[in-house]
C-alpha cells in the first residue's frame, strides 16, 4: 500500500508515464531506442517472493541494478533490516523521480512509524557503480542483487558480460536474482581463477509488462583466484 501510494500500480497511468519518460530520454541520448533499455516495472508480490528465496540476513546490502524510479529499492527498504538499499540507474530523469520518491517516503515513514533501511540512489552505469555499492560496507558483508534482466544485453538467454561484472564486485556468499535471463559461471577450464553462480531456486511469475516472467535466484562463490576478463565463461 505504501509503495503504490508513491508510484501507483504497475498498470496505472503513472506507470505508463514513467515508461514514456524513459523512452524519450533513451531516444535523446542514443538517437534511437535500444531494446536492452526497455523500461518495465516488476510485480511487487513476485518481487517479495524472490527476496524470501534469497534469504536476506541482517546487515547485508540490497542492490537493484537498473533501478528505474526506485520503486523496488524503496519496497525492499521497507521489509528488511538491510545495511543499505542501493539503486543504480543510468537514466537521469528516472533517477530524479527516485530521489523525489525517497524524500517523500522518508517523511511518510516518520509520520507512520515505519522502519526504513538507509537508501542510496546512484545515477551511473553498473560497471562503475556496482563495485562502490558492494564495497561501501567494507567489502566483507554479502549482498542481494536484483536484476530485471530484460534491460540487459545478452548472448541468447545468457547475461555473459553482466555475470563477469558481478563476479568482479560481489563478496562470497552473495545472492543474485535475475528475471528473464540467466547468469553464467566461469568454468576455469583454462587454469585461471573462476567463479560460480549456483542456482538456489527458479520461479514462473506474473508480470504485467510481459504477462509472465521466469526468475532465478543464485548464490555466488569463487572457485579460484580473481576472474580474468571474461575468459572461459560458458
Give a summary of the structure in a few sentences.
The chain is an alpha/beta fold.
Could you walk me through the main structural features you see in this protein, from its secondary elements to its overall organization?
By secondary structure, this protein is α/β, with parallel strands linked by helices. It has a single domain, classed as Rossmann fold, CATH 3.40.50.150. It is built from seven helices and seven strands; from the N terminus they run H-H-H-E-H-E-H-E-H-E-H-E-E-E. The chain is globular. The C terminus is likely disordered.
How is the main sheet built? 7 strands, mixed
Number of helices: 7
Helix content, binned percent: 25-40%
Which overall shape is indicated by the principal axes computed on the Cα atoms?
globular
Beta-strand portion reads 15-25%
**CATH architecture assignment:** 3-Layer(aba) Sandwich
User: Can you tell me the CATH superfamily?
Assistant: Vaccinia Virus protein VP39
As an assembly, this protein is single chain
List the helices and strands and how they pair.
Blueprint (H helix, E strand, L loop, with lengths): L1 H6 L5 H18 L13 H11 L6 E5 L5 H9 L4 E6 L2 H21 L6 E5 L2 H10 L7 E6 L11 H8 L7 E5 L15 E13 L3 E12 L12
